[in-house]
Structures are given as C-alpha cells and as structure tokens.
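Whether sequence alone determines local backbone shape is best considered at the level of individual chains. We regard such an encoding as a compact summary of how the chain folds. The sequence in question and its structure tokens are set out directly beneath this paragraph.
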Amino acid sequence: MLDGSSPLWEHSLQNIAPILLSLVFLPLNTYIVFWVSAYNRVFQSKVQQRRNVNRNKSFFKPKTILVTGVGMTKGLALARLFYEAGHDVIGADFEPSGTFVSGRVSKALKKFLPLQKPNAKSGSAPYIQSLLKIVTTENVDLWVSCSGVASAVEDGEAKEIIEARTSCKAIQFDVNTTQMLHEKHTFIAHTEEIGLTTPETHTITSRAEVDAALRNAPAGRKYIMKTIGMVDAFRADMTLLPKSTPQETAKHLSKLAISVDSPWILQQFIQGQEYCTHALIVKGQVKAFVACPSAELLMHYESLPPPSKLSLAMLKFTKIYAEAGGDSFTGHLSFDFLVYQDELDNLYRDIDATVTLYPIECNPRAHTAVALFNGTTQMADAYLSLLDDAPQQYSTSLVKGNITDKIVFPQDLQTRYYWIGHDLVNLIFLPLLSLLTLQHDSSITSVIQGINQFLGRLLSWKDGTFELWDPLPWWWLYHVYWPGQFWNALMTGRKWSRINVSTCKVFDVE
C-alpha cells in the first residue's frame, strides 16, 4: 500500500496500471454485455415480468421515488428494487471530476439527474437546492437517501427543508440525529445513555489525555486510537496501545495530530470478530434488517441466518435504539459490532451461551449490505410504509416471534456477494506482481491460492453490480467511471492508498 512518502512515479504507475487493465478487458466485457443485452431484447427477464404484473394490478399506485447515491452499489440496489416493484425511480448522484457514475445508465431509472456538491464557499446550499429542485420538478413522493459519508449532515439538513416545503417524505434522519450518530464519541455517549453496552471510550483532545487514560487502564487492556473526523490516512491504523515500551508509545502518538480542533477517541480493543448491520427504520420501528460478518474494508458480503443468536442479538440492539428515537426516528441505521472470540466459541458449542455486543461505530446512512436484499420485493413496501397511503400489510417475516414481527429479511440467504474488479486485482494481479518483482512475501503458492479463490467466487458468488437484466452499470463502472477517476488522479497528482469499488470511495494519503 502506498503512502504519502512513496515517490510520485509509484503513484503514477498506480493509476496507469488499472487503466491498462480496463483496456485489456474491454473487448471481453463489451462482448458479454452486448449478448446479454441482445438476449434481454428477445426474452423478458423475471424482473421485468414482476414489474409488469405489479403495474397491472387494479389497486396498484406507482410512486415516484428519488434515490440518491446510485453511483454506489447500495443506491443502485435500492433503485432496482423499487423498479422491480413497479415504481418510477429518479436517480441522482454527485459526478466527481466530471466522470459519469455507473448508476446513470441503469434500466431501473426513469431519469438521472446530477447533484451539486456542498462546497467551502456556499456550504450545503447548492446541494440542498439541487435536491429540492428535483423533488418539486419530478413530483417525488419519497426520497431515499443513499449518499456517502461526506454529505451525511447535509442530508439531514435537506430532509428537514424538503419535508417542510413539499409533501415528499424522506428516509433520512434529521440534522441533530445524523450528527449525533455520525460522530463516534457522541454515538458512544448516546448508546450509554439508553442503557446499552459500549467498549471503554475516551474523547481525546491532547497527548496528556492519552497518557492519563493509558496510565489508569486495567492491567493488560489494549486500546485503539480513532480519528473523529474524516482523515483517510489514519482510517486503517489499528495500532494497539500502549505499545511494548513507553518510548514506542510516545513515538506513535507523536505522528498523530491531536488537538481540540482535531479530536480523537481512545477505544478499548476487543479481540474478536467484527459484524455489521443494515436496517431500515420508519417512525422508530425496524422495517428491514440484515446482519453479516464485517471487516475494516468490507468487500465480501454474506447474510447471517436471521434466526441465529448473533443476528437476533444485533436486531434487538437495533430495535432498542430505534424505539428510543421515537416517532420522528426515520432513516437507514447501520452498526459495526465486535464480539469477543471466546464468546463466539462458546456460542458455537452451546446454543444457550450469552453474547455481548460491543458497538464501535454507527453509520446513519445506507450500508452496502443492502445488496443482500436483492430480489426481496417486500423491501419497496417497507420503505413506502412511511407514506400516509402505504399498504397495511407489506411483508412477512422469515423468523417467527414478536421481535421480528413484520420485519423484512433477505429472501436469498445462500447468495454471497463480491466485486470482480476488486478480487481480480487483489487475488490475482497483485500476488503475480509481487512474485515477478521478487517481493519477500511472495510465492507461487500464494498466487495459486489467489487464483483458486477468485475462480471459486466467480463460479459460486454474485457480483454486487452485475445483473443479467441490467448489465450496463457493471460495464460502465470498470470501463468509464474508474478509468476516469484514475486518469483524473494521474493528471492532478492526487495520491491515494486504496479504493472501495462498491462505494466509489478513494482513500487519500497525506
């Protein structure tokens, strides 16, 4: 992984290589999309059939749904679900550096409209005004916010203005709620207030506060420093503190810009497994829920069985959180949890074993795990339950019992999701490059293992962007959007360490 000290030529090569890779696969991928599209012209897909059936029902009233963030997998996945359910979908997103996002070419969209980004000069006004214009011009009934982390608070502002000035409803928390959940320290404080377990957490604004917390820590306890703001360079830093000597600890802390204006949190390290959730909350009630294993950079998704003890524990946590928010608590709610490994081991041996969840982060926005709801047609009505004329009965639960009553879960629990571009690079090309350049950690065995793992996913997993009935966004993602982003980085000298293919996130280095 490159950092800020890496020479410019390495960063240039980092951008040139994926552009060349895109060109190499362009003929094959174009051939695939051409024939899939030709097939779709002759034979009607099951998605199109279900859409037509829904629209022909005498009582069906199609709604106009605005989905923002359709350049990301989560926004595109939801747009496709609303389309399949028979509704009219307007897609919108930012188009950074003039590069068109892949969601704009989806069959699921009736129309795509670009959004203005918030900026330092005008603040959130251009963004909110562009949203408001779409809502009023297109007579939008429901806005489903799937925007990224960079516009989280602005989405809260937009929700308040749109609902005050129009009849449109928004799947989005208000400003105060979004801000409270978005910031790690206020999220932990609120979680404690409503009586839920949290890891030991300290808000840090000086070196002295770090030293005091470490000095007073229980024997053997380790901690991780996390920036409260959006500093990409430190997002992947999992250094355990204190280190083996006070001198090493001091040396590490000296690299961190800690101040009142740049606060951090010092959080208890939990040695165990990480899990994440995605939930749709409408008026303080959980309407849809999924839990899955997680990672620091999550690029592979598989649902936990809804009846499993882990899933039920995370659902219960989410329900308590949602109900504490009251009738005004509406939006997407996603948690990251850690569970001690020894508790997991006990759970596998004994079904009655207890599980303690340690929430480490909350995302008050849609999670990419929403892709696991692919084909779950009840999801559209779960969202529409926010509207005054919503259907009375919109779903059936996959799990019996009060805790899951009327909650939508993914219908297909067997399908696992990956992104072919990510795995192609990480499992085949990078190991091959390491072997060819004689890196110390390279071996033929690792290359063979990577190829086998890639082929296994290619044959038995599902790409998070590709759909047989809607293949063009997949082609566009790898041959228009990402090459455009790499070219722009090459021309501007932008330095980055890694990317998230599914969210279109580029992690910059300082």
